[in-house]
Amino acid sequence: MDINCIRQQFSVFSDINLKNSIFLDGAAGTQMCTRSVDASVKACINHNANLGGLFMTSSRAGTEIEEARKASAHFFNAYETEEIIFGQNMTTLTYNISRCLGRSLKPGDEIVLTQSDHESNISPWLELANDSGLIVKWLPFNLCTYGFDASIATSIINDRTKIVALNYANNVTGTINDIAQVSTIAKKFGALVYVDAVHFAPHGILDVQSLGCDFVVCSSHKLYGPHQGILWGRLDLLESLLPYKLRPTINKPPYKFETGTKNREAIAGLFGAIEHLKWIGKEFGGCAKHSGVREQIVAGMTSIIKHETCLLKKTIKGLQAMEFVTIHGYTAPSTLHLRTPTISFTVHSVRSELIALQLAKKGIFLWHGNNFSPETIKQLKLDDQDGVIRVSISQYTSEEDIERFLSAMYTLRPNT
Known about the structure:
seven-stranded mixed beta sheet, Aspartate Aminotransferase, domain 2
């Protein structure tokens, strides 16, 4: 990809006050691309009406929502647009679906969680278990693979297991977990599989048909769009679930799960973000302009993966050369396909907060702490609050960004 051309699609890089800044904070939220911003603004100005009216602005708003739903279906590789549910964010969607599923559970039923998950795919299930008398079991964290240990799933999942909640990629270590393997085991016992793909979706090709799961959820604000959650669920399952909804709301998916007034401008921005991925596929992925939407998205993601992997190699190599740094995750070149371009590390005898603060003063923006994955931090035997320093490589990250980051890290070498 032409990094200069990519950056022209992000207005933030033309901000005179930010022109020397380096954005390595994408795992918590990426910058919005211009297509997403423009689509959101257009929705606010030209399509500003609630849905279901017989007048022009309402009709336009409805069309806009359905276009975003179709685009999202292509992004997930879903069979039906009705399988796509919009919500405030991944956490809110997970609370909603967990409660819907909980209506059919009884005391003593089991839920399997992992020590590798973001808290948004843990707390909703723990609260459901507490309220309904369910038993919680855990897939442990594997210190060799830096993700949950799928190899022992057969000893944990059984005929009492009703739900297995997993993450596709760990947002601290970057490990891409084997969802299909665990899904296969869960299905033998008739358990439902709920997958958090928030961290994976910006860095991999999402294909729900290959995972064997029942639900997959991700977030637009990590896909170069606005704050908006998107969930895919199997249509037959969505049709059978009893939702928590207002009585006048139509009783069929996806509408019965979309509570209250939709955030139309955010949903429009999501559509713009997917249009951006399609543009990358056509511009840099060798995808013909007349090719299908799914093909364009896959070509765009393939280009992004290649770009990010090159920078991942450079970053890991540079950090490994610093004897005062410990990387928590895969580092061998032969294993990089098993991880996302998110690198977490600690500096010997120096708090992560101090490193992040010093880098911020140099215009390098990144996160530190537990990154809402306290179970992972605990298993890594790190401070539960100070956690790690996390570098997030994105499609707009340049080689110069990584060189400046590594150079700045050398200046922070602790005194020994």
